[in-house]
């Protein structure tokens, strides 16, 4: 989809990044909007501003678009590679029917908060309930999977896996996207973030099939189930890449402060983060005399990086900041996605997030990490 571009700027880094973030994270800040992305995910950012036009297909209102990508070729489309973040002022939606419709649908969805399971099914006639999506796409939203509500101090919305199609045929692994569609807390801005990814849930090439006997509704529902049940290793890049980016959104445009980037001086000089650096898998939690083993069907992880923490509780993903010094650790601004899961998994999630919020000290020994908190100890092993 071609756009009439008012301004085009290609840059490797848009603002000076604190020394702490130079190794693994870049902070993008442009006209009051900011976010952080991991340099493992991408190395370049391209910013495009459009005044909007009714002459494009589909018509699109005024916006600022950020392409976060690797390589030397600037992406031209939404589904080329990397992450694409688009920022709109909702006041600019007037006269753009697709944008107005997506805005109204998202407002209603967030106000009523229906169970998103109803959106993750396809009827026998092939119809389904699409979730809000901008930019407008001249194709149909075939399915929706892994749908969940997301809320941070800056934005609130929904994230989900989807694929847009103009035909009915089996899926291939490279055509799916993971997207966040959200509003600033005051409703003045609409933010769309799209992660282009591959999944091993589906083959790389279109398999042979007979269009005359292809049962699309049954296939779509089976595909949704497969995506919902797939482990994190089935997606590249990890879906948490987008979750962490969304958690970092800052919007000074609305008076909401940008995320703080100040960190303790001692963390600037220690690439191991006191031994915390890397990904850890939770083994157990609770008091030493009655530890609770993590559910085998809902593994939980915690990753420490110079840009902060990220992880999975076995149901939702979370992200936040942390401070450490001489065996003392404090977690700050830990925010989680809001998908509902089995009660037992939700109990595990509550225990983990509560533990992080009351954490006090830690010990690292070989491949084991202990985090002490009010009520017990989190025991982790180094992820393989």
| Terminal-residue CA separation | 41 Å
Low-pLDDT parts are 1-24, 255-268
Put simply, the count of helices is 4
Number of strands: 22
Give helix and strand order, one letter per element, not per position. Answer: EEEEEEHEEEEEHEHEEEEEEEHEEE
- Sheet-strand content, in percent, reads 35-45%
Helix proportion of residues, in percent? 10-25%
Radius of gyration: 21 Å
Structural class: mainly beta
Shape: globular
**Main sheet characteristics:** 9 strands, antiparallel
Mean pLDDT: 85
The overall number of domains is 2
What would your notes on this structure say?
The protein is mainly beta and 384 residues long. The chain folds into 2 domains: 7-254, no CATH class; 265-382, Lipocalin, CATH 2.40.128. The protein is built from 4 helices and 22 strands. It has helices at residues 97-112, 216-229, 240-247, 343-357, and strands at residues 7-11, 25-30, 33-38, 44-50, 63-69, 83-89, 140-151, 155-165, 177-184, 189-196, 198-199, 235-236, 250-251, 278-285, 292-293, 301-305, 308-312, 317-325, 328-336, 359-365, 368-373, 376-382. The strands form 4 sheets. Strands 14, 15, 16, 17, 18, 19, 20, 21 and 22 form a 9-stranded antiparallel β-sheet that branches. An 8-stranded antiparallel β-sheet has the order 1-4-5-6-10-9-8-7. The longest helix has 16 residues, at 97-112. The two termini are 41 Å apart. Residues 1-24 and 255-268 have low confidence and may be disordered.
